[in-house]
Predict the structure.
Amino acid sequence: MHETLDLTAHWAGYLSLGIFFTAYVLVIFEEATHMRKSKPVMIAAGLIWALIGVAYAQQGMSELVHERALEVIEEYGELFLFLLVAITYVNTLEERRVFDVLRARLVQLGLSYRQLFWLTGALAFFLSGLLDNLTTALVMGAVVVAVGSGSPRFVAMACVSIVVAANAGGAFTPFGDITTLMVWQKGKVQFIEFFALFLPSLVNWLVPACIMYLALPDAKPAAHTHEVKTKPGARGVIVLFLLTIVTAVSFKNFLMLPPAMGMMLGLGYLQVWSYVLTRRGGRYNDGDMVLDSFHQVQRVEWDTLFFFFGILFAVGGLGVLGYLINASALLYDGLGSTVANTILGALSAIVDNIPLMFAVLKMDPVMSHGEWLLITLTCGVGGSMLSIGSAAGVALMGQAKGAYTFSSHLKWTWAIALGYFASIGTHLVVNAQHF
């Protein structure tokens, strides 16, 4: 592990904690202040790292803190590029009217809001295990927003279900979440062993979903009689989106390269396809065929991407100060592995699960195989308890702006917490042989 200063009892550490918590309070009260959530955390991140820089400079260790900052930049760069491509594809699918058609098809099926609630949740759970929780949440969230435009209450509750389902579904495969990738790369859990978490993950979603189901509006979306058709090239965008996901997974699994590189290659697919469609549109004088891929990039929810920047750098700064590592050591030495893993998972609703998992892997506590599976589960699903606790929740707050908010998610935190503890209990029982 890199040499670092313990600044947890230093003035820079105390001041950084104060800045961090102040920023988080402003995020929580975003609806009251009308200040975008990215603004306070970006300020906090910059100030925290400035304090770290001063503290390290006083000790003549500026080169070391520079290296640590570059590590966080690399981590954020991968997330940024992955998000940029995923959201651009979702925007393009929306522009090609794919979600409008899907909405029309679902309405034609005569499904009620309650049936749609189960359908979108189930799709989110299983797709996130194959793809990743963020992309799945973005895709299913777009469907919910389109289908439930007449019921903000349904949109809010369905988004909560999608966040829980996507995070839970991403916990039982090595490429479903960044934290599972980290555990897999370290060799703590082998590829096939992740699937032992399938049942606990399913319980994590089903418990709050069953509770929320009782409060759903007992109605159907307003019927639309007009025919909806996709724009030319929509099927090509769908195929390229799936190919992009396959490319990203292949880069990671077979080439040992960051999945973000595969996603950027996938953005290249889209750029070439937009060129082909635009050339055809000009040839046949068909305006619907023209696709401006750069415009879809401009439509990306930048508040979300900047929020990720602020959170990742602020939390990364707290890690450099020594707070995350010290907290992990205190938990494992004082409370035991099971309690510590449960608490850390719950903390991931407040502190990003990536640095938490990073801290655990760096501490490398002596744990049974079952405990490594447990921390994989809890860090994967614990963030569901708050909307800002996972990439899926943050992304959906931007996508379903006004309907799905921090407070609308907080209303169901108690039910999600019941599912969290139920999933842990399920793991302790069905995977007892691993302990």
